[in-house]
């Protein structure tokens, strides 16, 4: 096993990896930029080194600096987390050159599976279904129509030179094909000077369902089941859950087998995720491979009872996966929401700043993976993910109830967060029925917002009393620096004493 | 203690008078006594018992002096008039008297300076524009007076809480 691991990341994922290392008795080395000196991943690490200014390009993305720190501090392995350099094949290469173990797939597997086109070719070879269509343009409309009939309507016509929706037509049925072809071709010619068009099956309201795979260096590759990530805002995942409300044991086995075939074909080692689009008839089509740990990995951990980060480390250290895991099935239900420092009333603009006060939810079935604390200033330089709130329970209903309860407990002052968005999602009848697809949330957000739940009788009166009391305590506080930082209760005592003094003759 | 409070919430905007004894006993609301008990739990947390109903508020003060209160998913803002404040009777918050330090509300970059040293400015007049994550925020003068010092230049990066200017 490794003695010391360099964590080439920041924020909640760096903290997550640190914790796994600590449980395994492995020393940790963090790196930080100028603005991250006070960040949690620096505070919790055994060692931490400054690697440059705030801009990622000059700090967290500098392979040379990471290698310097790794060598200087005597690390024998490096964990990239997600984002930053996690899917950059230059990092495992640099690690290999420096004699440091990269906790993740090989550079070759990353390149063979990571890019969309290479991944698709590999999927075809491994007989994993991809979205049916032609990658080459079709010259002849009759030939194209025959193909469309073969793959089944609706189909999508796309200009080869296309972009921005120009030269794109959805064809609902055979009768509409000829005119749609003419429109798409002439629009493509006008817009791009190139009338060539290709054909793809059009998926109506597809779900995004992904399979977590684990592969060791000894040829064993297993599936840990699926995650449903269909609730997305502009292609960004917002809510993730496991298991998916629509995946049957049979479909889970089929998709798991396909993902494992793909992993084997690419010579994949370590944790990876194979993403699929799933249509209304539960046909699944390969989308892409993420050659790293996913943000949403905790939902898989909660329903399998496994610690994926520790397993990544064990696999990198050459350990074998147990045979019994080939038939792992999810138990219970888990759901994750991503809390961001962003303002839902202002088009989800990032809202960095100082966290004045914070109360984190606890209790049964609640897990909070985060990199924030009270008094910390959320820097404006990075992704504003604050916390991942994960709930699990016996059923989807219990899990949602726990998540709602935890969101009500979660209070953060000083910055705006998207907590309200989750309250809204978790109350939508379609979401509760599991009727979701990748465009669902964008549709929901374009509808008028439902009226806010009325507050309990007495809330306004109580608010008035609270405001008066707090203001009174604040204005009696000693006029030094930031009064909000001071311990409060004593001020009441002081005020009482001061006023008693006033009454003294 | 007597406070005039304008409370804004989902139910609209209303003015109320809260009065309590010095030891926070005998609370009255708009002149009628209420069965209430309030206690500060932490620096920004107040617990209120109102006729046996338990409420908890997380409170912070925004830059213009308004109090922001949060109770579960409900938010209120409160403008207080403190009878003890002899001057600047608008808010009990920041005394807009004497020299004012203008602080950066968030980390960001100064994209425009709208006033020069020596300029006379009105309360609420823009002094600088600070950009954070593609959002531009105008920093306004809290009082009428004269710009005494400008401590930042256009294009400069600033941290939250950094002094940007003095208005005398």
Brief digest:
The complex is a heterodimer of chains A (505) and B (168). Chain A has helices at 11-24, 40-43, 63-73, 90-98, 107-114, 116-125, 141-151, 177-192, 249-265, 297-304, 308-316, 396-409, 419-425, 429-432, 440-446, 459-475, 489-503; strands spanning 4-7, 27-33, 47-52, 77-79, 101-102, 155-163, 166-171, 197-201, 207-215, 221-233, 236-242, 270-278, 284-290, 333-340, 342-343, 349-350, 353-354, 357-359, 366-370, 377-378, 385-393, 411-413.
Give the SSE layout.
The complex is a heterodimer of chains A (505) and B (168).
Chain A: E1 4-7, H1 11-24, E2 27-33, H2 40-43, E3 47-52, H3 63-73, E4 77-79, H4 90-98, E5 101-102, H5 107-114, H6 116-125, H7 141-151, E6 155-163, E7 166-171, H8 177-192, E8 197-201, E9 207-215, E10 221-233, E11 236-242, H9 249-265, E12 270-278, E13 284-290, H10 297-304, H11 308-316, E14 333-340, E15 342-343, E16 349-350, E17 353-354, E18 357-359, E19 366-370, E20 377-378, E21 385-393, H12 396-409, E22 411-413, H13 419-425, H14 429-432, H15 440-446, H16 459-475, H17 489-503
Parallel strand pairs in A: 1-2, 1-4, 2-3, 4-5
Antiparallel strand pairs in A: 6-7, 6-8, 9-10, 9-12, 10-11, 11-14, 12-13, 14-21, 15-16, 17-20, 18-22, 19-21
Helix pairs in contact in A: 3-4, 5-6
Chain B: E1 2-9, E2 12-19, E3 28-29, E4 32-33, E5 36-42, E6 45-50, E7 53-61, E8 67-71, E9 74-81, E10 100-103, E11 108-113, E12 120-121, E13 126-132, E14 135-140, E15 145-150, E16 157-158, E17 163-167
Antiparallel strand pairs in B: 1-2, 1-9, 2-3, 3-4, 5-6, 6-7, 7-8, 8-9, 10-17, 11-13, 11-16, 12-15, 13-14, 15-17
